Amino acid sequence: MAISSEYAEFVTELFAAFGPVRLRRMFGGAGIFHDDVMIGLIADGTIFLRTDAALAADLAGEGSTPFVYSSQTRTVEMPYWRLPERLLDEPEEIAVWAQRAYQAAAQARNPRKKRSKKAG
Q1: Strand 22-26 to strand 29-34: parallel, antiparallel, or no bridges (unpaired)?
Q2: Which CATH number characterizes residue 12's domain?
Q3: Structural domain boundaries enclosing 10
Q4: Statement: residue 120 has pLDDT above 50
Q5: Which among 3, 6, 62, 78 could disulfide-bond with 67, CB atoms 3.0 to 4.6 Å apart, if both were Cys?
Q6: Rounded to whole angstroms, how far apart are CA atoms 87 and 118?
């Protein structure tokens, strides 16, 4: 299902307290980007945030569920969790969750390199 321009505007306004986001249409939905980092996605009219283990646990505590898709051979759970509906009326609180999603996405994008021991 394609995202309407009205819904795209709603989402960008929803994240305004966090900072500027842009949507990039993909696979019938859209990615939500901040500073060229994908912090969330929209699928079937639902907003999902990029998570790490801590954020996923907190969203699970809010009753959220992960984004899951099925291919012909398997079901895949992605590191994106549904934005709790109660937040749709709380843009200041969304900013806090979005910042955490940004940190999780940035960390996943640039994981720390393991240090190797120098022979000596």
Answers
A1: antiparallel
A2: 3.30.1460.30
A3: 5-109
A4: no
A5: 78
A6: 49
Residue 112, pLDDT above cutoff 50: yes
What are 82's strand-pairing partners? 48
For residue 51, the one-letter residue type is T
CA distance 29 to 46: 9
pLDDT classification of 28: cutoffs 50, 70, 90: confident
| 92 inside domain | yes
Q: Which residue has the tokens 């980007």?
A: 33
Helix, strand, or coil here: 45? coil
Q: Is residue 120 situated within a structural domain?
A: no
Threshold 0.85, pTM exceeds: yes
Sorted by sequence, the CB contacts under 8 Å of residue 115 that are 6+ apart come out as none
Which helix (H) or strand (E) covers residue 27, if one does? none
24: β partners: 31
- In the chain, the number of structural domains is 1
Parallel, antiparallel, or unpaired for β 75-82 and 66-70? antiparallel
The answer to whether 34 and 20 are in contact (CB under 8 A) is: yes
Q: Looking at the domain assignment, is residue 117 inside a domain?
A: no
